[in-house]
């Protein structure tokens, strides 16, 4: 049973991964950006690597945050029409939107994997740290899969409540 009272396929470990991952990413982003501001202000020297790390962390945090929003049912939605449909229509709309979300996330995962492979084949490295670029890109397909799991979990929860 997850902390939000629902048993889910991904389970509690994914809740902890998402929450801890977001906290770590935001703390790292803040710390790195703050260190860059301090060094630039006091030493008049900018840390070149900070932009690439903060940018990668921002992308990961965005995808992880989207996953958390699915779990919490917190995505922005325009529900005026759906709210006025009969129960069957609401269920149909739920599964159509979940399917669209799934298609988008699967496409993101597929093309993310293609990008990772290309970066590995080309031996692409980051500008400042000369790290393999695919290390940063790998978060996109992995977190897209997590978003699919969370979208399905949320849809199943809503579907159960619509069935009454």
Written overview of the protein:
- The protein has 164 residues and is mostly helical.
- The chain has one domain (12-163).
- It contains six helices and no strands.
- The chain has helices spanning 12-43, 50-72, 80-83, 87-122, 133-137, 139-163.
- The longest helix has 36 residues, at 87-122.
- Mean pLDDT is 90; it is low at 1-5.
Termini, distance in Å? 20 Å
Number of domains: 1
Can you write the helix and strand succession as a string? HHHHHH
Strand proportion? under 5%
Helix and strand arrangement:
Blueprint lengths: L11 H32 L6 H23 L7 H4 L3 H36 L10 H5 L1 H25 L1
Summarize the structure.
The chain has one domain.
Give the tags.
164 residues; mainly alpha; 76% helix; elongated; disordered N terminus
